[in-house]
Amino acid sequence: QKEVEQDPGPLSVPEGAIVSLNCTYSNSAFQYFMWYRQYSRKGPELLMYTYSSGNKEDGRFTAQVDKSSKYISLFIRDSQPSDSATYLCAMSLGTPNDYKLSFGAGTTVTVRA
Amino acid sequence: NAGVTQTPKFQVLKTGQSMTLQCAQDMNHEYMSWYRQDPGMGLRLIHYSVGAGITDQGEVPNGYNVSRSTTEDFPLRLLSAAPSQTSVYFCASRGKPGRGGTEAFFGQGTRLTVV
């Protein structure tokens, strides 16, 4: 079983729809949760991060962490064609000596105009 | 601001050939890593380094070597290319993590095909 599970999709939605992405994980020691966005033929770029449990909002994007369920989510409101990309969740222990990130497989999202 | 620079962007190798993928960062980051990305598999860690002179294996190290002689550079060597190494390779760097961690910056990737 992978440490981080993410449904690779693909996911296709009409413009303006809400996109819902999620990941589950098995390591209860993870404290730091990130979402990366990767456009086609580009490297991943950090979109949002949260520490421990709770919600974080940034414009049209909301990240949620439920540590009791080992489940994280990313919501994209009023989706735009420019949101078409692969979204990868990533996690780390967040301790001073921890450098490694554990990634999900990535979900490919297409927003249709 | 260059960030993380990878070269080459594309490469075709014949089975058994060797080559080096270059990675350089200008952010003075301690941590550098190499990933490969395959469809449905996500990013898998090949090797990583926590500083000059220090390297260690990741999840899929076989067939690859690395060295870290300077903070800036972290080359990845394919010793004897195999078709199974056809993939997209990403180099990433990250600063010293504290409570909560820090962002990882990725290069643009190297698309490698082994025939």
Q: Secondary structure elements and their pairing?
A:
The complex is a heterodimer of chains A (113) and B (115).
Chain A: E1 4-6, E2 11-14, E3 19-25, E4 32-38, E5 45-51, E6 54-58, E7 61-66, E8 71-76, E9 85-92, E10 102-103, E11 107-112
Parallel strand pairs in A: 2-11
Antiparallel strand pairs in A: 1-3, 3-8, 4-5, 4-9, 6-7, 7-8, 9-10, 9-11
Chain B: E1 4-7, E2 10-13, E3 19-25, E4 31-38, E5 42-51, E6 54-57, E7 64-66, E8 76-78, E9 87-94, E10 104-106, E11 110-114
Parallel strand pairs in B: 2-11
Antiparallel strand pairs in B: 1-3, 3-8, 4-5, 4-9, 5-6, 7-8, 9-10, 9-11
Q: Specify the helix fraction band of chain A.
A: under 10%
Give the overall pLDDT of chain A as a whole number. 92
Task: Indicate the multimeric state.
Answer: heterodimer
Beta content of chain B:
over 45%
Category from helices, strands and their pairing of chain A: mainly beta
- Report the portion of residues of chain A in β strands: over 45%
Could you explain how this protein is built, in words?
The complex is a heterodimer of chains A (113) and B (115). Chain A is built from no helices and eleven strands. Chain A has 113 residues and is an all-beta fold. In chain B, strands 2, 4, 5, 6, 9, 10 and 11 form a seven-stranded mixed sheet that branches. Chain B has a four-stranded antiparallel sheet with strand order 1-3-8-7, with no helix packed on it. Chain B has strands at 4-7, 10-13, 19-25, 31-38, 42-51, 54-57, 64-66, 76-78, 87-94, 104-106, 110-114. The N and C termini of chain B lie far apart (36 Å). In chain B, a hairpin with a 3-residue loop joins strand 4 and strand 5. The radius of gyration of chain B is 14 Å and the shape is globular. The A-B interface holds A 4, 6, 8, 31-32, 34, 41-46, 49, 51, 88, 90, 92, 94-101, 103-106 and B 4, 30-31, 33, 35, 40-43, 45, 48, 50, 90, 92, 94, 96-101, 103-104, 106-109.
Q: What characteristics describe this protein?
A:
heterodimer, A: about 110 residues, mainly beta, 6-stranded mixed beta sheet, 5-stranded antiparallel beta sheet, about 55% strand, B: about 120 residues, 7-stranded mixed beta sheet, 4-stranded antiparallel beta sheet, 11 strands, globular
